[in-house]
Amino acid sequence: MGTEEEFRTKVESALAQPKNLGELEDADAVGTVGSSECGDMLRMWVKFRDEGGRRVIDRATFQTFGCETAIAVASVATELITGKTVEEALNLDSQALAAPLGPLPPLKIHCAQLVEGALRSALDPISSKQADVGAVAPTLLQSFQGDGVAPKKVVLRTSHE
Fold this sequence. Notes:
Layout: H1 3-16, E1 29-34, E2 41-51, E3 54-65, H2 68-81, H3 86-90, H4 94-98, H5 109-123, H6 125-132, H7 140-145
Antiparallel strand pairs: 1-2, 2-3
């Protein structure tokens, strides 16, 4: 079985029985991230517990408006971070979060980055917002207006007016 076929099998398995899907009531942290490039969005909830004087992740759940790979990566990532401290979880990059699925095809790497972004948004919201400031795509309105240009008012009329 080739690497691509192994990846597809693991994604299908994760999709057949996704782990930790849905909102987590009484979550201690929530992170949300979206991609303007593909239209995917992912939200992650995290609940902590005290374990021997250390604050560790007790449970993490997710919801996504994304492709199969985003669902699969989020599912395995929530399993992977359980029992880790915030610092340990933040040390995991997108490759590590997706590792249980095997190497991602180049067109699917953004799915793991989406999961990493949601995790960072939940666990370190101030740093993740500062890092994202330059990466946020302009809105459609901002694209039409340009930098430093006064807002334009657009009025749409029917052909009968």
